[in-house]
Amino acid sequence: MKNYKTNVHNSLFSLRKYLFFFVMIAFVITCSLLLFLNGLNIEELNITKSAFSTFLNILILSLIFTLIHNTYYRFLVEKPVQQILDATHRITNGDFKVRIEPINTFGKTNELDIIINNFNEMAEELSGIETLRNDFISNVSHELKTPLSIIQNYAALMQNEKTTDLERKEYSKSVYETSQNLSKLITNILKLNKLENQKIFLETYEYNLSNQLTECLLCFESIWEEKNINIEVDIDEHIMLNADEELTSIIWNNLYSNAFKFTPKNGTVSIKAKKYENLITVSVSDTGCGMSSETGKHIFEKFYQGDTSHATKGNGLGLALVKKIIDIINAQIYIESELGKGTTFTVKLDIQENKTKNI
């Protein structure tokens, strides 16, 4: 950590300021005397005698003005500037808890108070960003470590001479599935990072939402057949939407994935899509374990998984991606859930608001 030590304080006496005040006062007094004495009949001897005392007075006045000016400048300018410098150095060294007290000179807000207020707001934002960054790194490290440990363990078992061919086949299947989950995790991290930290240029055009919902659903056919899940589809035909097709496909894929993950064998997943004038509603329902109201409050947070029994099947980034895209395309998403009965995610898309825009 760097050690900064900056001192902007000057002494109360400054030769440069003293000479400045001396010249100014001498000029003012000289001009005033010339104007006052012009036309008056005063002996030259008297003028000469008073010149020396006038010069001393100018010296003394210059000193007084210099001390007053430097005192004022030190306490009302240099002191807050020093506080700001010290605070910026602490920010540079990673101390985001630093705050500066406002000056409010004579009960009024000045420019330095505005700078201090802006600095405090900046420090508050940086503190929040640093906390999110640390949490994100911690969560990513944990999420990466888990599948890597599984892969290493199964790889070690496969190298064991006592392992049978049937066991090796099972272990290789587990390694393959875990590597797929790891690939999805990294892909979702990259997507979320791009959506959060880069300027997004939406490529909007009108496309058939009904076809998109059906095509995305068919990608999960192997999963619902394996679990013998009943599929209920109620999608209006030819629902046209003007939006970014690539981004909206991420929404449906993640909602479908979430529904199939939590739906048990012989359960039911329902997909509905309806158009009401300028509003489109898409609902994805499952008959899974459901969630509590407390879980519902955090379900869109990164790496949050309400049901830890399914933690190995996901990475807690899918719904975070969904929420981010929902915000980008100016849509809305709602959750209805009951423990033991299932969950319904409903997305509402306003056709009038889904126009081209840059984020």
Explain briefly what this protein structure is.
Residues 75-131 form the HAMP domain. This protein is 57% helix and 14% strand.
Number of helices: 9
Strand order of the largest sheet: 2-4-5-7-6
Which segments are poorly predicted (pLDDT under 50) over 5 or more consecutive residues?
308-315, 355-359
Strand content: 5-15%
CATH level-four homologous superfamily name of the domain at 204-350: Histidine kinase-like ATPase, C-terminal domain
Indicate the mean pLDDT.
78
Element string (H = helix, E = strand): HHHHEHHEEHEEHHEE
Instruction: Give the overall shape, derived from the CA principal axes.
Output: elongated
**Name of the CATH architecture of the domain at 204-350:** 2-Layer Sandwich
How many beta strands in the DSSP annotation?
7
**What is the helix content?**
55-70%
Largest sheet: 5 strands, mixed
From the N-terminal CA to the C-terminal CA, the straight-line distance is 37 Å
Q: What is the class of the domain at 204-350 in the CATH system?
A: Alpha Beta
Q: Give Rg in angstroms.
A: 36 Å
**What would the CATH topology of the domain at 204-350 be?**
Heat Shock Protein 90
Structural class: alpha+beta
